[in-house]
Design brief:
Blueprint: E1 2-3, H1 11-14, E2 28-31, E3 35-36, H2 48-61, E4 67-71, E5 76-80, H3 82-90, E6 95-100, H4 105-118, H5 124-136, H6 142-149, H7 153-162, H8 167-174, H9 180-187, H10 192-205, H11 209-224, H12 230-247, E7 251-255, E8 261-265, H13 270-281
Parallel strand pairs: 3-5, 4-6
Antiparallel strand pairs: 1-2, 2-6, 4-5, 7-8
Helix pairs in contact: 2-3, 5-7, 6-7, 9-10, 9-11
Amino acid sequence: MTKRKVLGKGLGALIPEINQYDDKDNYVYCNVEDIKPNKFQPRKGFDEAGIEELVVSIKEKGIIQPLIVRDVGDGYELIAGERRWRAAKRAGITEVPVIVKKASDTEVLELSLIENIQREDLSCLEEAEAYKQLTKEFTLTQEEVAKRVGKDRSTITNYLRLLKLPLEIRDGLSRDVVTMGHARAFLSLETPVKQREAYRQVLKRGLSVRQTEKMVRGLKKEKKNKPLERDKDIHLDAIKNELIKQFGTQVKIVARKGGRGKIEIEFYSLDDLDRIIETLKGR
């Protein structure tokens, strides 16, 4: 490994732009086989055509921009530059320029995420999964994630909500069949069944995001105007019969919109009322 000199500080130092460094910069050359892929890489799919173009470029001009790595004892692990690393291997390059940084697992994920976001390399689902990893595995709040990646908290929340969509819709998102705008419209529907129905209508009719939002508003309005569903009626009847058996008198359940309602228990004398009250008290 051959040493070079120092690079500046900050994110620009960690993820330098092309031609940002020269012979005064601090980077080293290392064997390409000594580098492992980033286990926290948020990007799951790589554009093969883009990598092949990069292979041609590397064969002609070499690696213009160093990879960012960390020392893991038995070699190095990528933080940023996996496309370049893959292309270099395909191009038959044996040594590549790297900048070695000290970074924790959390910092590696953050920096990989930031690099991909800045270069618009991630799909919305890959970005959502990375945010989920930061909140779950590294126990960061959504507010902390937002600050670290330079986004609004509401943006982080919206991305995380995408992961609650049915698999069928998430698959459509990953294949760019629908957009994040479509997905946000689906999320306003109450059940996965309704979300899938809306998704299939979008595919069948080729609806734009605005048309999808209009369709979803119509579905929600239609639901508000519907009477109580039969399965809910059956559930309430079962509760009413149980109460009649418990109190030994007539019981009426009145259900209203919004999940509200009231229960009426009949009594036929003051003694009967006392008996019902004692039953309510569990005596």
